[in-house]
Write a structure and sequence with these properties.
2 copies of one chain form a homodimer.
Chain A: H1 29-34, E1 41-43, E2 49-54, E3 63-69, H2 76-87, E4 95-99, E5 104-108, H3 138-145, E6 157-161, E7 164-168, E8 173-175, E9 181-184, E10 198-201, E11 215-221, H4 224-227, E12 246-253, E13 263-266, H5 271-281, E14 304-306
Antiparallel strand pairs in A: 1-13, 2-3, 2-12, 3-11, 4-5, 4-12, 5-10, 6-7, 7-8, 9-10, 9-11, 13-14
Chain lengths: 309, 309
């Protein structure tokens, strides 16, 4: 039998419903998202999207990855650098150089380490530092820490605000590394990276990277164009054969791309999100027998969808 | 620059060390595993391995996936069924039929839902039930719950024993869905699956499946032959075009496979494992600035290696 098992958790909550033998008796998280009112959704400004067109695959199929850049108060220095790098067309022609299973896919200048061949960076990039990985402003920390919190293995505060997951303590708050998170490659501290080399998480959330590397966004469409790439066989998953690298043909801001569909996220301050989160923590529908009674923050992806015409 | 960033966490702890510009000043988790004494390692009996040879890829490269079956007290009824299915060569010729991003890759009989074409199962398979997903024997629960516990978003007890991660409460213990875990496809309860349809986790740990589906093992080698497959475009990631399915050419127990290398795992009761876990929770080495102060159980993979000659 081809079973419809595991029907329950669609990674994109707005995807097609599970194939069920009969009508669901109890709402699933996807049902809640699908029936949430339009007023609970927030438009993502195209200027906050990074649209990366990779070289087509072997069959000629286009490969687009759409990334939403993170909003204030997090990582804005690196985000500004990324905007400058796009404006300078710096990313055009670089490549995915590393794919490590259950960890990251990473793109950068393949000749970055070759003396005299590294691509020159545009002028005016901000120099970021270790202290910029988290936000320590007392009033911001107090505001972010005031609401409902999830039980978390890494931090005393784990919650959502303005559509983003974050963690924190009484002293600081910071963005976190969940599946699909995009971060900034760097060398050893005090180097904190510029944003010229980026990675996306393609495995179990590597939360040990929180506060050690800058999180600058998340993949909202086309993650499979990174996560299903062949794994590199060199140390750390670097491609050993340059022919394995996947070229970034063009990287543009969303407002430069004609025909880009409009995206929106489910407000993390909405009743719909609260109901969705509650259901994710306590599945009890046709397929589920035993509700978990909890959910970790990275197993609670913020629903994102293309606006229906 | 091609940076060596993110050098820290190798998914297989015994992999090559990070490419560092200078000698490490402080031990990494991989250093601890690499320097652990031979006496801290336990051999995995070949009879407890499932060796799945998929059809070679487009370039003719062999694709082998090696799965370690879980040990008592967990899921042994399904494990017995899997042994029977292998003995009957039932799996030979079935296929990977579903790959859903950040969730699972699943294999079964592609004609299972086609009337009159479903492959007959061997006689004598055990009929499992919902109660078998967890172990409620009081003395077993007490013994498993006695040791050190990790802070967990899903359960009051989260720990390791005999090389396996598990979770639990005062009433029961159960095996968990981490990256690479192998589970049993099923229809709606009271069906609990036979073991004829299996899946491997290829994304962030879907712990909501714990106690809802049977965990029967974990992939110890070749996970990339499942995790890097193209994602299915049908509902739930099923392949819409039968040509996309990947055939299982042969599935054998490890003791039937000539030349299979000897595998071992780091004893979860060893000092080395405790030191490794402590380092995973508190990275402070060349790359890491800010130790996390915690780690979730699925971000603490049990080190597994091929025995060096």
């Amino acid at each position: 039998m081809r079973k419809f098992l595991l029907a329950a958790v669609l990674s994109a909550a707005f995807s097609a419903p599970p194939i069920a033998a009969e009508a669901p008796k109890l709402l699933t998280p996807s049902d809640i998202v699908a029936s949430s009112p339009a007023s609970d959704w927030r438009r993502i400004a195209p200027k906050d999207l990074l649209v990366m067109d990779l070289a087509p695959d072997a069959a000629g199929k286009p490969r687009r990855v759409v990334i939403q850049l993170i909003s204030a108060p997090f990582s804005q220095g690196w985000v500004d650098n990324i905007r400058k790098l796009v404006a300078a067309r710096w990313y055009d022609g670089i490549a995915v150089v590393r794919v490590q299973d259950n960890y990251v896919a990473q793109w950068g200048d393949p000749d970055g380490e070759v003396a005299g061949k590294a691509k020159a960076l545009p002028a005016g990039l901000k120099v970021m530092k270790d202290g910029d990985y988290a936000v320590a402003d007392k009033s911001v920390v107090a505001a972010y820490s005031a609401g409902a919190k999830l039980k978390d293995s890494y931090a005393s505060v784990a919650s959502f605000r303005d559509g983003w997951p974050f963690a924190g303590s009484l002293q600081a708050i910071w963005p976190i590394h969940c599946y699909g998170a995009v971060g900034v490659g760097r060398n050893l501290s005090p180097d904190a990276g510029t944003g010229a080399e980026l990675y996306a998480v393609i495995g179990h959330a590597p939360r040990q990277l929180d506060r050690n590397v800058a999180v600058v966004g998340r993949v909202i469409e086309g993650i499979e164009n990174l996560s299903a790439l062949p794994r590199g066989t060199g140390p750390l998953g670097f491609y050993e054969d340059p022919a394995q690298r996947v070229k970034l043909v063009s990287v543009r801001m969303g407002d430069e791309v004609p025909g880009l569909p409009p995206y929106e996220y489910l407000s993390t301050e909405s009743q719909s999100f609260a109901a969705y989160a509650g259901k994710r923590a306590n599945r009890k529908d046709d397929f589920y027998i035993q509700p978990a009674g909890g959910v970790d923050i990275c197993n609670l992806p913020v629903p994102i969808r293309v606006v229906k015409p």
